[in-house]
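Data availability (excerpt). The following record was deposited with the supplementary files.
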Amino acid sequence: MQINCKENLNEIKRVLLQLTNDQYTFQSTTLFGATIGQHVRHILEFYQSALNGIKTKVINYDNRERNLLIETDIDIAIQVIDEIYTKLNEDNCDTRIILVGNFCAEEGNQNKIETTFLRELAYCLEHSIHHQALIKVGLLEMKCLNYIDDTFGLAPATVRYRKQCSQ
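Predicted structure:
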């Protein structure tokens, strides 16, 4: 799973290396004012939450830092990607973890769910791909689709299915 997550992070990094900070912080009309930077920050903070859960044995995606520097400065975002990448290189066994979260709009509805580190990495990967699809929409609006390949923002199952259909 770590290999898949690292490939995913490298895919995002390749896009960031092509963007200017103005493009990174461009408020997309199609995305209701959201920026590519906001989506990247969101992705990275989920990975950070999962990795922090190895030490604490608890993951709570609701309590992310929401570091505005990640969403406004490409260099900071790349630095965070590199930090996550390095931590994914460590020998992280499939630690049992408790996922804590409020899955409704009402306050005070905390749930605790037993999970594992690898399961949460799989979630982070799927979550990232979903946000990459939104990033793709932002790139389309800026006429920058040439920054990505055709599979950016597509689930691996979709990529496999399309290959199967084209044969």
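Summary of structural features: Strands lie at 58-59, 96-102, 110-116.
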